[in-house]
Description:
By secondary structure, this protein is mostly helical. It is 69% helix and 0% strand. The termini are far apart.
Amino acid sequence: MIGQAAAPLRRRKDARPRELLSAAMSLFVQKGFAATRTDEIAERAGVSKGTLYLYFDHKEALFTALVAESFFCEFPFESAPALEGRQGSAILQDVVTTWRSALVEGPVGGVVKLVFTEVHHFPVLADLWVRRILAPTRAVVHEAVQRGVAEAQFRAVDPELVMNALVLPVIATCLHRHAIGPHLSSTSFDEPGGMPACTLDLLLQGLTNRATAGRTTVFSTCGSPT
């Protein structure tokens, strides 16, 4: 009986770091990092303040762990399936879908807003942002563009410009939705996927190699092409 009782307790103990991170995320997004107290996080997670310090030395360590965990879980480019045999346009669509799902439609968008507002206090966040998010995404985008150009699907273009054109509108939508959006009664950003999808449509139309594709539509979610 003792052994049977110990197993659930062990599983509960193993789950506590994630429970603390979940509680911290909701409070940091709601109140901001500076205004959130560790005792509030512990209470939200259903543990004592002392228990919190068994897993995280201080609030800053908890915040950094939250950002790292969020980025690792939501941006799986480093462990993505092989891109073999896929067209460049399909790969770029997957990139935008992943970014939109994480930053605009999911709770991680609130964490991204915190990163942008708190990075001057925590320079390590800039390294996490580049290493966990931008670098893997950049590698996938560059591969997609180079493949599209090689297959004459895309016209010749600098892959880094495509990278910026894909991700910056998603970041802008994320910041608007999580910073300004909650204080507006109505906004053109109400539809989470609208802006990124439209941007992708315009980008793919611009990338299309007209010499080989004529005026064929590559992708369209943002009105009819001309």
